[in-house]
Amino acid sequence: MTDRRTEILDAALRVLAEHGMRGLTHRAVDAAAGIAAGSTSYYFRSRSALVTGCVTRLLQLDEAVEVPEVAAAPPAELAHALVAVTVAMATTGRDRTLARYELSLAGAREPDLRAALVASGDVIRRLGAHTLAAAGAADPTAAAAELAALMDGLAFTALVRGPTDAAALAAWVRPPIERALRAWTGG
Hints:
The protein is mostly helical. The protein is built from 9 helices and no strands.
């Protein structure tokens, strides 16, 4: 069972994915969550608080993703895991990815939001650096940043232009991910 704040934030992420930042209002979130008018503003007094809550919720969801233990695995298994994550970003996790991109674009103009998004992304990049260090990357921090940017770019392109079929998408993202892994791990 989730608490009311989590339900509201999950609804806010759906609103972001469906209607963008301009559509993110307390009233729209109330409607998406199926709760009484004014409920969202009770938990998140300002739009800024709601947006910050969305960033925090995205990080919670990212940290909860079950990623197979690949730190000591061969590069092929690491590539397989990264391909699966990238495909999920554009398919099953589409709404979350769209919400993140909406927030990221707003963060380009709002320094406080940008700082929150960078801090949130740093958590994920540190996890990636740990995995890449175990896989033999000479500079795991740089490797994690580059791979995250690559995966983001591939997911963005898939959302905008396709492919949308999971199998076709996996076949499309695998070569660049494998090339990047080989470049960083020497595998």
